[in-house]
TrEMBL record:
<dbReference type="InterPro" id="IPR021133">
    <property type="entry name" value="HEAT_type_2"/>
</dbReference>
<feature type="compositionally biased region" description="Low complexity">
    <location>
        <begin position="762"/>
        <end position="784"/>
    </location>
</feature>
<dbReference type="GO" id="GO:0019888">
    <property type="term" value="F:protein phosphatase regulator activity"/>
</dbReference>
<dbReference type="GO" id="GO:0005737">
    <property type="term" value="C:cytoplasm"/>
</dbReference>
<feature type="repeat" description="HEAT">
    <location>
        <begin position="415"/>
        <end position="453"/>
    </location>
</feature>
<keyword id="KW-0677">Repeat</keyword>
<feature type="repeat" description="HEAT">
    <location>
        <begin position="493"/>
        <end position="529"/>
    </location>
</feature>
<feature type="region of interest" description="Disordered">
    <location>
        <begin position="751"/>
        <end position="795"/>
    </location>
</feature>
<dbReference type="InterPro" id="IPR051023">
    <property type="entry name" value="PP2A_Regulatory_Subunit_A"/>
</dbReference>
<protein>
    <submittedName>
        <fullName>Uncharacterized protein</fullName>
    </submittedName>
</protein>
Amino acid sequence: MQNSPNENPPVDTGSIVQEIYREEYIPVQQIQRREEDAVFIDENPQIVLEKLMKLKDCHYKERLAFTKRLGELLTWIGDSAIENLNTIIQQILEDADEIKKNFIAQLEQICVLLKTKQNSQELIKQHVVKALQELLKSNNFDIKEQAGNSISVVAKELNERDRGNLILTQVIQMAHDDNNDENVMIAVKLFGQLAADFGPELSESFIALEILSKGDDAKQPIRKEAVLQLANIAKVLSKDFIKHRLIPFFSKKTEERTWQTRKACLDIIVKLAEQTDTENFDLITGRLLALLDDQNKWVKQHAYKQLGKYISIITRSENINDKLLEFYLKMNDSDIRELGIDNEIVIECALYFPAVLQVYTDKKWPQLSKLFMKLINHKDKVYIDNISLRVKKPLACSIHVLAKLLGPQLAYSELLKVLEQLLQDPNDEIKHGAVENLGLFFDAIEESKRASLIDILLIIQKDQKKWRIRELIAKQISHLAQVFDVETVFSIILPVSTKLCNDNVYAVRKAAAKQIFELYDKFSKSQNELYFSVLKQNILGFANSNMFNQRQSFVIMCEKLMRYEQFQVDFLEAFINLGQDPIKNVRISVAKVLQKHLFKPKSSVNDGLFREQTSIQTLWNLLIKDNIVLNSLNNKKYPFTIQQKVQQTQLTQSQIKLQQSEQQNIVQQQQQNLNDEEQQKVNASVSEQNQVIQNQELMILEEQNEKTNHIEQNEEQVKQEDEITQTIDKTEQITKENNYEENLQNQIQLESELNEEKQEVENQQEQEQQQIEQNEVVDNSQNLKENEEKEIEQE
């Protein structure tokens, strides 16, 4: 029977298993080869040091492994490694380029190690700076560039004199190396990176002049690198130098014939504009407007990509140029979009839209609103990296900012429909961005019109498949309670909050339960006793529920409800009863809330109101006796230790000793004051008192022994619990490590089972064939016998 076209074809499970096995199976030989190629570092630091001393004699992979971890190994070995560091580094400098690159990456960690030693600057100069000087002479451009980046970091650890003698001298030599353009480019880059370390005086008198001179070099890559360093040196130059030397040079470079240099000017135009005054800012704005109309496609594209960021840094009203807005409004036009790849210009336009609106204010909203609606309705002609998501998501995440900038009336009339559209978007990331700050959007709307927006909240929280959206709403319950009036909070927010506290997902229940205190605070301050009593009954309903997750939600609510003194009257009894709940998750939640309440440092007056209460202390002592509860607590964040109990017992022991000494002093004084006639009686009484004191000491010693034994038992319990947790962690780690092996064994077992089944089928076929052949032999023999008998009869 043939399958219809609409039906799924039959699946051959055996072939699928074999295909999975072929894809996932790793031959044993390959595993053995990996083990042979692996590098194992010895646990003995002396042996590791000997390896490092003879690193050149090791094979390549071993040298590479030791170099990648050189900083860590030197720290581990200690002072003996520092003494032999020069020998180790010299071997690396003579090794392959890849090992040198990994060595440069370790220099910062080595510097940190050397800073902890005496004569740290001398050690850094002797080992690190000397090595970088050698690496800057390499023929590999990547190594020289990486060494240059590292030397700009190391320079901060040197004094001004050493920076000049050891670093600046070599950089100047590289800058004037006419036979090697790579050296010149790296030197120009180092001039820009080191300008802040050399200070404004040296930067103006020498470094800036060197960069400006290299900006007029005959070779385009050198000119481009000089332009890229203008923003770095501008940080340390005076305003006069920037105005008369730097800005004219920059303007000249924006008109240069080669488009690569003009594009480099756009790379630094925003940073340069941030460091200039009003007059220079206007000059830079003029150059940006010229580059937005550039004849070269790549320059024009890059200018549009920088436009939104450039407008966002405008902080003074005198710098606002309406021509910048005219170009910005064109960023979604088809001819401009086609300049970029994958709609990069449109994405930049959407990303900086709130900043542009902030600069030009709501007065320019009539022009900006058209561009805004085009961006909101953006659709991809071709699905490439989901461009629509990258355009809409920034707007969805910032719609509350737009509402605040436009004001209550425009926000209600212009953005409400947009919000509803974003909440219905099929893409969850866009929907999440709109929901995340929903409370702030409601806050920006006029108060008289907020009640009409509550339907949005009711609709979006109904989708049971979107638990992350429900979690975002739950986190905003506190803010929503502040935004709406008491009646709306009671009729809408309270039912939604109660539902979220009973959600199927724990993250939603937890987020909602933590926000209930805001409803409690709002209703307690209102004059409506009915609302307040209904809320308390709802909260107690969670405490008395037959479902453990509702009781757990009540415990989480109590974390912040315990800041109110009324908690003792309303909820304390229910909270204490749940400390003995049969479900361990509820008890663990009670212990965590108590731990924060008892041991979290106070940040306000209402924190830890019930710390001294006997019922709370008794409940805590009862809970920590449960090993399951004790192991679940975070002792690092909110530490509680048994050492405190030990200190208390030691304190009581010292007090008892003090009392004993006082009693003995009293007895001695009595002995001195008595007459000789009463001496015998006194001696008898003294002996009796001594006997009493000895009995007291014995009792005290017994109590001390009992307490110490109890403390030791507690310590042993803690040690056992630590051992249990360590074994659990080890077993979890072992199981994780063995998952792959188990999967591999399962795959091999599947294949072996398939092979066994196949072998059994073949054996059965062979047995049947043998049986047939035997039957044929028997039949033939019988026929022969019959023929022979017939012949005998005939004869």
